[in-house]
Amino acid sequence: MTQETTGTATAREADWDAAPGLLDGAKELMLGPDTCDLAYWITQVAQGTLKDRGETGHHRDAEVPDFLRTPGPLREALVLEFGFRGLSEEIATRLLAHYVANAPGVPELEFYATQLIDEARHARVFRNHLVELGMPGDTLLADIEAMAADYRRRVLDPVEKFTLDIIRDQADFPGGVAVFAIVIEGVLAPAAELSERKWTPLSPATGEISRGTAIDEIRHLTVASTILKNHLVRHPEYRPRLAEVLDAGRRLWEEVPDREFVIQREELFQTGMTRHADLIGDYEIWPGVRMIDTTPEQRYDMAEQWTDEMAEARMAYMGLPVELITGGARGAA
């Protein structure tokens, strides 16, 4: 069964119940900017994926459990995760304004305009979920800035500077597409997958927020891959430049200390998960492995593996050697 939008069935990749998981979707689907235009976003995303979930990112019947509203390691882990992700999405939104400005045609302009809205929505639902957890709304933005100051300085600022140099200063649109989709989202997308898997058995609302953002990320990754693939067909001479951009992106992710921030919150999650083992039971975080049996390092390593698998599939689709990016593929930030 699929949701109904304005008289038509929602496309499978945008359907809340029928859409594949992020990893499968990003590896297997083939979508382009001509398909995922503004009309698609209005009918398939706003009226499809987000039906009954547009304000908070989750259905009103998907509740936040009381134990996430009281101090404890699980709440702290979630505050760190969604606080950092909210700030990351806010920066992504600002970056995407340059993609809209430098889009070579209307299809690309419309697609990146919709992605800008997607990322702004992600930032909003991550922030607002922290209010649902009990953080004060009137100081939320300042509280997130203070909480994430070190993460912003050491991880986000270098990535933002790198991206701005290519898309704004050099006005290299295909290079910017590669940076955002392959380097940034290609590395961070497994965070969304891991988040959905981790929180689903513990908090229906949190799991739904992660599910909705992951459905969006499928579209972002696959459309960007098509844009690059088509550009290389038309301009094969761009291949050396693309290789240069991807290599620089790989080296960037080798240098930023994302792992320490991820492991910090995964250790908090570990402590909290153990305390609520009765809720998790035999739930499998991936096939054959119970979440309760995993460690922070195992979850991080699995996110790294997912990154490599996704990169291999998307690079193959574009006819590029996966070695350009997997040497620097990282887990989840």
Topology:
Layout lengths: L21 H7 L9 H12 L23 H30 L3 H27 L7 H8 L1 H21 L3 H27 L4 H31 L4 H17 L2 H18 L1 H4 L3 E3 L2 E2 L5 H23 L4 H4 L7
Antiparallel strand pairs: 1-2
Helix pairs in contact: 1-8, 1-12, 3-4, 3-6, 3-10, 4-8, 5-6, 6-7, 7-8, 7-9, 7-12, 8-12, 10-12
Q: Would you mind describing this structure in some detail?
A:
This protein has 13 helices and 2 strands; from the N terminus they run H-H-H-H-H-H-H-H-H-H-H-E-E-H-H. It has helices at 22-28, 38-49, 73-102, 106-132, 140-147, 149-169, 173-199, 204-234, 239-255, 258-275, 277-280, 296-318, 323-326; strands at residues 284-286, 289-290. Strands 1-2 form a two-stranded antiparallel ribbon. Strand 1 (284-286) and strand 2 form a beta hairpin. Helix 8 (204-234) packs parallel to helix 12 (296-318).
In sequence order, what are the helices and strands, one letter per element?
HHHHHHHHHHHEEHH
Question: Any idea how many domains?
Answer: 1
**What is the CA-CA span between the terminal residues?**
34 Å
Round the Cα radius of gyration to an integer and report it.
Answer: 19 Å
Strand runs, count: 2
Number of helices: 13
| Superfamily (CATH H level) name | Ribonucleotide Reductase, subunit A
Query: Tell me, what's the shape?
Result: globular
Give the second-level CATH assignment, the architecture. Answer: Orthogonal Bundle
Largest sheet: 2 strands, antiparallel
Any low-confidence stretches, pLDDT <50, length ≥5? 1-6, 328-333
Q: Give the strand content.
A: under 5%
CATH class: Mainly Alpha
- CATH fold-level topology: Ribonucleotide Reductase, subunit A
Percent of residues in helices: 55-70%
User: What is the spatial order of strands in the main beta sheet?
Assistant: 1-2
The chain-level mean pLDDT equals 92
Structural class based on helices, strands and sheet pairing: mainly alpha
